[in-house]
Design a protein that fits this description.
Layout lengths: L13 E10 L11 E3 L4 E3 L6 E3 L3 E9 L6 E7 L6 E6 L2 E2 L2 E4 L2 E7 L13 E6 L2 E6 L17 H21 L1 H8 L3 E5 L14 E7 L7 E7 L5 E8 L6 E4 L5 E4 L5 E7 L5 E4 L5 E4 L7 E5 L2 E11 L4 E8 L5 E7 L6 E5 L6
Parallel strand pairs: 12-13
Antiparallel strand pairs: 1-5, 1-7, 2-6, 3-5, 4-5, 6-10, 7-8, 9-10, 11-12, 13-14, 14-15, 15-16, 16-17, 18-19, 19-20, 20-21, 21-22, 22-23, 23-24, 24-25, 25-26
Length: 354
């Protein structure tokens, strides 16, 4: 038997669902006692990783049965001195609150929930054929896990966003995403890292350039780590769906991304100066410069072809990508999003850049 009581290959009948109680005033006040009531097995978890406070919110988890039809849980707690509830968020949704003095009551549905809880994800996701980008909306007031203590990685957070949006432009120019989409071979996935999840450490700071196969398993997932200045330092390649299969590529070492037939799709390499090179077979070498001075420079072979600057206001939910093709005026792509979920509320200026 394994430590979790399951035999190899056996799946649990229980799920852990997170909820975020967002404070109207940041500060450390002490955890409220949250009670859960349901007509089936459902209990609040007491372990530190599943019941904790950050500057901006309280995080609690309910452990419950995996059920499928109209299964509701009621939660309740009392607000403490100095704060009131701005919102309660569960699985990306703001819940309706009922108040009786200082007592707050809410109801949420667990029907059909599977996999890991997504409550703590504050993601803004953009898709074009063959290319998806996920911007993690990190907020120092929600820092948790490995990022709870010490200096907050503000530089690496900004660098990761710049690398995602800069590489997005280079990949579109390479033509690789459209070819993958047309052939039904999957897509390229650009991810950053998150600093607000006690369970998912996501440390040290890094970003990802993943080749996601249509059936997931076998996808190649480079994790590209960053130093304190935002420079890329190494590429830890993992294989999705196959645990512990990995290899670390040093600067100057090419990494091949291949499709499920073994054909090369894209080669990437961390460069000695902390940037990255990328090339499709028989195509030009594109280069993403290291993050510095609040921007990244983009190159095709030896020629500079543009710059990308990213401005992100996680309090107001405004993400701006300022793009300048060499010799042309700067253009702005603006994404307005829900600061508590990352969901897109508006998107302008998303047209072609390079």
């Amino acid at each position: 038997m394994e430590e979790n009581g399951l035999r190899p290959g056996e799946e649990s009948l229980l799920r852990r669902t997170a909820l975020r109680i967002v404070k109207d005033q940041p500060g450390i006040y002490g955890m409220p006692q949250v009670a859960f009531d349901a007509d089936f097995y459902c209990v609040g978890m007491k372990e530190e990783a599943f019941c904790y406070e950050t500057e901006k919110e309280f995080v609690v988890y309910a452990e419950h049965l995996l059920l499928t039809d109209a299964c509701l849980v009621t939660g309740s707690y009392e607000e403490g001195g100095g704060w009131e509830t701005a919102a309660v968020v569960c699985e990306g949704r703001r819940l309706l609150l009922q108040r009786d003095g200082k007592k707050v009551r809410f109801t949420f549905e667990i029907s059909g929930l599977t996999g890991k809880t997504r409550t703590l994800y504050i993601h803004t996701i953009l898709r074009e054929p063959g290319l998806t980008l996920r911007a993690e909306q990190n907020d120092e007031g929600r820092r948790a896990g490995a990022y709870r203590q010490g200096e907050y990685p503000a530089v690496q957070t900004a660098a990761a966003l710049h690398y995602e949006f800069g590489m997005r432009e280079l990949l579109k120019k390479s033509g690789v995403p459209s070819r993958l989409n047309e052939a039904g071979l999957g897509y390229l996935l650009l991810l950053g890292f998150e600093t607000n999840n006690e369970v998912h450490g996501d440390w040290p700071p890094h970003w990802h350039l993943i080749f996601r196969w249509p059936d997931y398993c076998g996808s190649q997932a480079p994790h590209i780590y960053l130093d304190e200045t935002g420079r890329m330092t190494r590429n830890l390649m993992c294989i999705d769906g196959i645990p512990r299969v990995r290899y670390t590529y040093a600067p100057g070492e090419w990494c091949s991304l291949v499709d499920r037939y073994g054909r090369h799709v894209l080669e990437i390499r961390i460069d000695e100066d902390g940037g990255m090179s990328a090339a499709a077979p028989n195509g030009p070498v594109f280069r993403l410069g290291a993050y510095r001075d609040g921007c990244v420079k983009l190159y095709e072979e030896a020629a500079e072809i543009g710059t990308v600057r990213v401005q992100n206001d996680t309090q107001e939910g405004v993400l701006r990508i300022l793009k300048q093709k060499t010799g042309y005026p700067e253009t702005t792509e603006e994404i307005r999003y829900d600061p508590l979920s990352g969901g897109i509320l508006g998107h302008t200026g998303w047209g072609a850049f390079l």
